[in-house]
C-alpha cells in the first residue's frame, strides 16, 4: 500500500545568505526521507536583485545561479550546478522537489524608460488620482550578463501594467501604465478595488507575448530542473485565466503526476472554491483558513471551541486540493502575514495537520530546524514533530472517526489497514486541564496495550473487549496512542 506523503517547506525567511542551502538540501535529503518526508518545496531558484535576497524580488527567470548578474553568480542559496546536484540527490533519495515560482512581478531593472501613467489610490487601485503624465520607470530588462542564452526575450514597459517608482521625481506610489489595452487584470482578488498590483513592476498578462514567454519559461524550468512540481507565489494577484493556461501547459509538458500548489492567501472558503473552479480544479491550494483557525486556537487556549477547528477550511470542503500547514515564511514572526502559532500549541497543531485523512501536509523548515535572524532566534521543534512524522508514516492509516464533542478536548481515530502491520492510532488534543476520550478502535484490537508516541504520557491504554479505549491527554497538549512496534 502507498504510504502517506508529506512535504517540507525547505527554507525560512532568515536563512543565512551563505550560498550553501542547495548543498544543505543535498546532504539532508536521505534523512528527510527517513523521517517520512518525500517532497520538499524549495525557495525561488531564480536570480533576484542581490545574492542576499530571498528570491521574491525576482530579476531574471532564466538565471538559476549561472550568470554574473546583480552582484554575483550564485543566488542566496547557491549556484545552478549545486541546485541540480541537490535535486539529483533528492531524486536518488526518493524525495520530490517543488520549485517556487514568482510570476507576478519583476524587480531590479537594468534601466529606466519614459512612459505615461496615472496614479491610483493605494487602497483603491480603481480610483485614479491624477491625469495621465510621464514618469521615468524602472522597466527595462536587458539581462546583459546572460545575453540571449535560453531566451532572447527582453522586457520593457509594454510588458507591465503598473509600477511603484517614478525615478524622475524620486517618489513612490502605485502607477498604472497608460496605453493601448492597458488596464489592471480583471480576474484577480478584489481587495483594494483590484489586487492585480502588488509590488515592483507588475507583469501584464493581457499581453500575448508575455503569456507566451512565461509559459515557455515554465516548461523550460521544469525540464531543466526535472522537478516534481511547482509552488506558485501570490496567485490571487495573477489573472486566473493565465493561471489556468499556465498550469494546463505544465501538465501537458510534464504529465498528470506533476504537482502544482498555489499560494492563494484568502481565508474565505467560497473564494478558494471559486478559484479552484476557475482554474480547472486540478491544482492544490494552501489551506489558509485552517492556519488561521490554528492560530486563533493557540491564542485563545481553553476559550477556543476545538469542535469548530475545521469549520470553513479547505481541507473540509476540498480535501484532495488542500495543502495543510501550521506556519510558513510569511506567517513567521516579523513578516507581512505574521500569525505565528504559539509554542504551547505547536505540537497539537502539527498533529491536527499530519495525522488526519484529508489534505497534503507541509512541515515548515523554521518549525523543524530553527529560525535565524538578527533579532530573536527561535529554536526548532524537531523533537516534538518527529514522533508525529513517525506516526504519520507508520500509524495514521485507514478509516477516520472524529470525536469532536467537547470544546476543550477532541479526538479522532484512524482504524489502520491490513497492508501496514500495526497501523492505526488514536489522537487526543486538549486545551483545558486534561482529560480522556473513550473512542472505538475495533474489537479485533481487544487486549492490545497502546502507548503514547509523543511520550507525554508514560501509562498504557488497554483496548477493551468492545473495541473501545479510554485515551487520556494532559492539559494543553496532544497524545498519539498506538500499538508499539516490536523492539
TrEMBL record:
Keyword Metal-binding carried by entry: yes
Keywords: Carbohydrate metabolism, Glycosidase, Hydrolase, Metal-binding
Superkingdom, taxonomy of origin: Bacteria
Sample GO molecular function, one term: alpha-amylase activity
Database matches in Pfam families: Alpha-amylase
PANTHER family xref list: ALPHA-AMYLASE (PTHR43447)
Annotated source species: Cohnella hashimotonis
SMART domains xref list: Aamy
Family indicated by similarity: Belongs to the glycosyl hydrolase 13 family.
E.C. number: 3.2.1.1
Stated name of the protein: Alpha-amylase
Domain (Glycosyl hydrolase family 13 catalytic): residue spans on this chain: 5-392
InterPro entries listed in its UniProt record: A-amylase_thermo (IPR013776), Alpha_amylase (IPR006046), GH (IPR017853), GH13_cat_dom (IPR006047), Glyco_hydro_b (IPR013780)
Cofactor(s) the protein needs: Ca(2+)
Amino acid at each position: 500500500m502507498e504510504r502517506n506523503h508529506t512535504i517540507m517547506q525547505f527554507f525560512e525567511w532568515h536563512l543565512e545568505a551563505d550560498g550553501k542551502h542547495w548543498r544543505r538540501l543535498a546532504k539532508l535529503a536521505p534523512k528527510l526521507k527517513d523521517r517520512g518526508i518525500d517532497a520538499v518545496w524549495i525557495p525561488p531558484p531564480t536570480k533576484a536583485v542581490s545574492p542576499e535576497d530571498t528570491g521574491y524580488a525576482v530579476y531574471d527567470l532564466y538565471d538559476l545561479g549561472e550568470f554574473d548578474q546583480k552582484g554575483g553568480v550564485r543566488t542566496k542559496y547557491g549556484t545552478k550546478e549545486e541546485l541540480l546536484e541537490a535535486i539529483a540527490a533528492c531524486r536518488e533519495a526518493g524525495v520530490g522537489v517543488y520549485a517556487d515560482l514568482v510570476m507576478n512581478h519583476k524587480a531590479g531593472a537594468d534601466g529606466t524608460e519614459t512612459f505615461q501613467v496615472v496614479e491610483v489610490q493605494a487602497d483603491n487601485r480603481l480610483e485614479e488620482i491624477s491625469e495621465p503624465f510621464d514618469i521615468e520607470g524602472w522597466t527595462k530588462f536587458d539581462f546583459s550578463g546572460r545575453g540571449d542564452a535560453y531566451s532572447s526575450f527582453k522586457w520593457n514597459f509594454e510588458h507591465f501594467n503598473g509600477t511603484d517608482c517614478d525615478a524622475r521625481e524620486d517618489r513612490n506610489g502605485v502607477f498604472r501604465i497608460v496605453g493601448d489595452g492597458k488596464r489592471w487584470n480583471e480576474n484577480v482578488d478584489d481587495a483594494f478595488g483590484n489586487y492585480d498590483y502588488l509590488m515592483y513592476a507588475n507583469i501584464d498578462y493581457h499581453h500575448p507575448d508575455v503569456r507566451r514567454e512565461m509559459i515557455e519559461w515554465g516548461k523550460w524550468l521544469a525540464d531543466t530542473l526535472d522537478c516534481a512540481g511547482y509552488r506558485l507565489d501570490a496567485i490571487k494577484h495573477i489573472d486566473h485565466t493565465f493561471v489556468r493556461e499556465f498550469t494546463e501547459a505544465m501538465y501537458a509538458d510534464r504529465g498528470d503526476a506533476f504537482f502544482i500548489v498555489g499560494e492563494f492567501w484568502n481565508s474565505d472558503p467560497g473564494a478558494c472554491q471559486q478559484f479552484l473552479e476557475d482554474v480547472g480544479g486540478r491544482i492544490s491550494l494552501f489551506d489558509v483558513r485552517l492556519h488561521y483557525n490554528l492560530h486563533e486556537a493557540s491564542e485563545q487556549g481553553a476559550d477556543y471551541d476545538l469542535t469548530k477547528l475545521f469549520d470553513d477550511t479547505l481541507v473540509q470542503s476540498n480535501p484532495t486540493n488542500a495543502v495543510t500547514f501550521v506556519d510558513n515564511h510569511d506567517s513567521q514572526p516579523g513578516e507581512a502575514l505574521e500569525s505565528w502559532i504559539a509554542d504551547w500549541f505547536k505540537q497539537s497543531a502539527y498533529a491536527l495537520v499530519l495525522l488526519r485523512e484529508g489534505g497534503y501536509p507541509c512541515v515548515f523548515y523554521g518549525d523543524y530546524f530553527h529560525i535565524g535572524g538578527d533579532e530573536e532566534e527561535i529554536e526548532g521543534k524537531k523533537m516534538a514533530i518527529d514522533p508525529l512524522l513517525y506516526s504519520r508514516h507508520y500509524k495514521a492509516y485507514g478509516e477516520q472517526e472524529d470525536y469532536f464533542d467537547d470544546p476543550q478536548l477532541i479526538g479522532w481515530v484512524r482504524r489502520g489497514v491490513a497492508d501496514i502491520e500495526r497501523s492505526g492510532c488514536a489522537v487526543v488534543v486538549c486545551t483545558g486541564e486534561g482529560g480522556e476520550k473513550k473512542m472505538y478502535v475495533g474489537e479485533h484490537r481487544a487486549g492490545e496495550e497502546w502507548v503514547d508516541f509523543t511520550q507525554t504520557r508514560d501509562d498504557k491504554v488497554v483496548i477493551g473487549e468492545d473495541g473501545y479505549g479510554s485515551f487520556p491527554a494532559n492539559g494543553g497538549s496532544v497524545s498519539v496512542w498506538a500499538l508499539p512496534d516490536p523492539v
